[in-house]
């Protein structure tokens, strides 16, 4: 035996960059084709004895030399004409400064909705191609709409991490299937899971969050930093945590580049800036002349800044929205308050983003940091109703408090933790100047045109200009990969990866503002609204329902119910002059191209439902179950996993041991202040409260006080309607109906009350189901303050659900109504 057991064979997957191979200090880049990269072969020698053997350490993976730090920022629900950098009146000095040392992009496009845009942004693939044809909460069982991004489309976080970056994510997610957001996972589609691949996450999982009391996570653990912390706000907390993470990375390893994805909840509802920012913006009197004058001001600013062409036309004001001079004084007062809070939210967010950029600068890292700041994941949101709402959850349930109620009960509270507010639609339309339409509308630029700035001092030298090339969210990942000299992987975790649908925008850093775009074709689709771009031409459908009419029931024959339009974007930047009648052959060519692209990227079947799609049955650990048993306190079961108790009969039975003094605390609750219900003891008396969207409360209270010891308390609710089953027929008639509730103690009835109306669609989504305490906001502030932990012992809580069953006669009537509705389409 010669004693030699192993030798090193150099793999083509590795390219040594620094240090002696096998030394503890050695580093390597990888070819990037595989995630994770195969283990580097042992390159030393092994003899029978250690003193004759030579060790070999696998090299530490680092990115290619010169790879930049990356800060990717994206605000939420922000129209093209909102920020000062793109002609708006809302001050965004951070974005302004970034534009001065970088480039403004005027022809950059989203998908018109939150989850889909984020899926496209993080994967470099079209949103239907990764299962996000709609938001996660409206997913359906088809490949383009199932909310599963797929292991064949690992995100930019996973790619960069595998190539030596430290990757972190702050703020909004909204790309994890809601039924996987509980404490039992699975966690592979969470930000730190295998699919997304981020090292660290600090943020919220759903579509929006209460910025004062969010359902907040660090990695996969719920945290509550706002408790006993007056003035805490998530916008500042995210910036603080991002600064902490950046400093930590550069303190531990100054050479390691970071990728920070900062995705604040601003300016999605609820609009929750701090009081100081509301006062600062209100004192500026930016909106006193109203939304029509605001539109004219933005339009003039945009021409002055060169972010729209000189010949671009301002699209007409829609017939369905009141002009400012048609409003009453009360309406004007309320609407100015609403928009001041919205503007404060954007300005506040921009300021906190500036703190993150300043921290990078203070570390001496800004020169080699690529900053991409995208203004909105879609256009400004019209989901606040024509008169706004103090509670967005109410609007999604078809309830809008009138102007006098909003003024009386919510004016001074607007933006505080006592509201979950959204502004009036006409402000939304103005913030999408100079375009038509809003968020949700993928057929028009008001829904899909986003301002964007890129800055990278070490690479982008021709600064301060604009770039007008047509691009899309799917082009960001290829841009980041080219900037860092990292290829898109061929395989990740053993699975072949889909090709990127996007192309790099790096060429624009050197080209002029109007040089040809390298993206020549892009399709769009959302809620049945469609469009196709091809070499300067744009064909699109015209919306058949307004995006703020969330409970509309449009004709289900999507392919044949919409009128098409045609625009020559080379001469018509704003979709002003429809050429469809003059150029039918060109329109037909564009329509056929849309069919080709839609077929390629899993866009079919088309579905234009809104509210009914939100309650479509989908996978869940609760699906198919009607009995749930809880034997210990448990908190934080998310909205997407808790058993739904809307439009149904149910009974909650709590077997408890009551302490001396009668007992206090929460037994069972879902939702919170802005829509929810709870069963609790208050000074020994069982109480049940239904919080009807913070606009009304129905409360049952026992006539008897519990004695110390073991008891069984029940709340039974009997619902009078047909239930969610009517939604299968595109019909809303089964929800929001009356019901009757009864409290019993040890089998004896102690309270009974009729509830004349019920919440039809959803509870507050940024809340949870809790057993034994209440973690976020409470359903009745007059009775208790969170966490209101039960001071006795819970032996067992049983929830029994008796969902309404449609009779043959019910089904016949619903089918007739559906057929009639289809005929009208």
From TrEMBL:
Biased composition (Low complexity): 17-29
InterPro entries recorded: Alkaline_phosphatase_core_sf, Sulfatase, Sulfatase_CS, Sulfatase_N
Highest taxon in the source lineage: Bacteria
Region of interest (Disordered), ranges: 10-33
Swiss-Prot/TrEMBL keywords: Calcium, Hydrolase, Metal-binding
One GO MF term: hydrolase activity
Keyword Transmembrane applies: no
Keyword Chloroplast: no
Ranges for domain Sulfatase N-terminal: 68-485
UniProt xrefs under PROSITE patterns: SULFATASE_1 (PS00523)
Family annotation (Pfam families): Sulfatase
Protein family membership: Belongs to the sulfatase family.
Protein name: Arylsulfatase
Organism of origin: Methyloceanibacter methanicus
